[in-house]
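Q: I have 218 residues here and want to know how they pack in 3D. Can you give me a structure?
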Amino acid sequence: MPIAGSAETAYQELRRLLVRGEYKPGDRLLEERLSEQLGVSRTPIREALGRLQSDGLVVPVRRGAVVAQLSVEEVRDLYHYRGALEALAAELAAERNGRGEIPPADIKRMVQARQAVQDAEERGDAVAIASRNLEFHRYIAELSGNPFVVEALSKVWDHIAIYSAANVTDPVWAHEINRHHVKLTDAVIAGDARVAADVARQHIRDAAQIYDTAHTEE
């Protein structure tokens, strides 16, 4: 079914496809093909690709773009940056809950978001694990109450999603994700900012190690 012919809608849809792994690093994105796929003219496609270029997710080429390719070292740097941001987000969320600033309904939604990741893992659905995992981390960031942290993490998540889809296909790591998430939500609920930050930071370090191991073996 064609989506609305606006550059904003085309941008959001293309960004979603990239984050879902529909296109891999180095894949060619032709305006004509994307126009047919999304049911819009080439003008909004061209504008959407321009915005994705500004985001650093694509690189322009003649008549389209290619999905940006980062080196293993650059992806490692992204993980280090993400670890610091995720630790800050978790710390702030725990502090806010410790002060009673987070409504119980929001805490309940955090736990439900964590459970959704576990449910996907139990089904062995790698695509759903990746999607639900991102939603969980995004919710923790939102609970931090700091929009700058949310904005910075949103950009990092999109980059990492393109490069680390293989992480969630590792059954051992997929199970470990849930164990980490339980510890993280428990710390936020308890209002323990130090533990929340430590768990979040270690969680991302372990994810980086999975990525690093996979690419060292290639």
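Q: Anything worth noting?
A: Residues 72-98 form the longest helix (27 residues). Residues 1-5 have pLDDT under 50 and may be disordered.
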